[in-house]
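User: Good morning. I'm curious how pyridoxal-5'-phosphate would be positioned relative to this chain. Could you predict the structure with it bound?
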Amino acid sequence: MTELRELLSYAATRVADYRDAVADRPVFPKDVDLMAVRAGLGVLPDGPTPGATVLEVLADAVEPALVGTVGPRYFGFVVGGALDAATAAEVLTIGWDQVAFNAVTSPGAAAVEDVAGAWLKELFGLPISASFGFVTGGQAANTVALAAARHDVLARASWDVEQRGLTGAPRVRVVANAERHATIDRALRLLGLGAGALEPVATDSEGRIDVVDLARVLTGGPEGPMIVCLQAGNVNTGAFDDLRSATATAHDHGAWVHVDGAFGLWAAASPTKRHLVDGIQTADSWATDGHKWLNVPYDCGYVFCSHPKAHAAAMSLSAAYLTGHGQDGPRAPGDHVLESSRRARGFATWAALRQLGRSGVAELVERCCTLARRFADQLAAFDGVTVVNEVVLNQVLVCFGDDEETERVIEAVQRSGVCWMGATTWRAMRLMRISVSNWRTTENDVDRSVRAIKAAISASNLR
Ligand SMILES: *Cc1c(COP(=O)(O)O)cnc(C)c1O
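Assistant: Good morning! Here's the predicted structure, ligand included:
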């Protein structure tokens, strides 16, 4: 074998071994010693090291400090795992090392993005004519969408923001669900709109936007350039804004409507959950992640825009040497995202969609929701334990009596190594936040995790 073949085989075997064993090791590594990991990596050597040694040293040093997110009992944040075919496709992507800027830098990468992007629009029920970009994640998707929004609302006020910037521009009002994700605020900072300028709209008991209050806020300020940010999938409760009526209300005021559906947009891919995103197609832009619920490896997100010209005007990159630029020719991936040189993210997405098929995506979404319900039902049956949200999707928020007790139970569960779930503060309550978003999770994994939680409660009561 050549050295390359040996290295790739070694890496593939190491990854397969890790993924095979991950369900049996502590989900969060026990006694992680960061100093030992650093020591294992050594000092910058004076000369070269054989590739085989490099890989072995890296894997040996790092594996003890890895978190079992690809395993079936990681319920932290909204992380998702990585499907086998998508993982292997990512290996091809790295090996092919394509620059996915446009059809000149890689016809293959451009074609696959075209196909995968069209498949995603079909799954979500978005307009066929919508433009799209394969980005690094929800943050980038929200930023690109809001850049397109900024272009459009200012162009309608006869202001070319790409040329003139924001100095002296008409004021852009940004109105959003008070419980939006923090990446919306960061996008507003980056785009010069200012997080402080955001006008929050009241929410109901589940964090859904109050459409009456939305109308009040919109009417309460000057008419003019306006952007409204809605949410499909509240990051704590999983709740959905009433997209149809909120969008109609915002459109009555001439606002651009952006929907952050980092994980919740996937409800659109399931016939039994699609009602949650009713009216989704009436918005102007959408953001979602591949690396969360589709279980594509990190990092991968998608932005869609029903105004392709605004999308391209905000993002396109023109330089004389960049031929194949997309004006008349094929779609240029690089004209829809923040980066110029970038990895070909379409390959892993295409592989995930091809492996699952339409029914497989729906089944993945529905299974996670059913398992979240299973968590909620079993936990709510324990004395002193309350599930505080309506479990409409894959998110479960649990209170174990009071903040201190909840904190204690969460820490004990995390230490147990059986499963891992994070903590959140929502409505001034400290809560365990469970997110079921991994393709490998089964009923048995939920039951084992519930037993670990039960043990943590008992241990806490015995103190
Ligand atoms: C995770 C998340 C984001 C950010 O996505 P990244 O992929 O982490 O950048 C934005 N909005 C919501 C609702 C999310 O859950």
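The radius of gyration is 23 Å. The CA atoms of residues 181 and 235 lie 7 Å apart.
Let me know if you'd like a different ligand tried.
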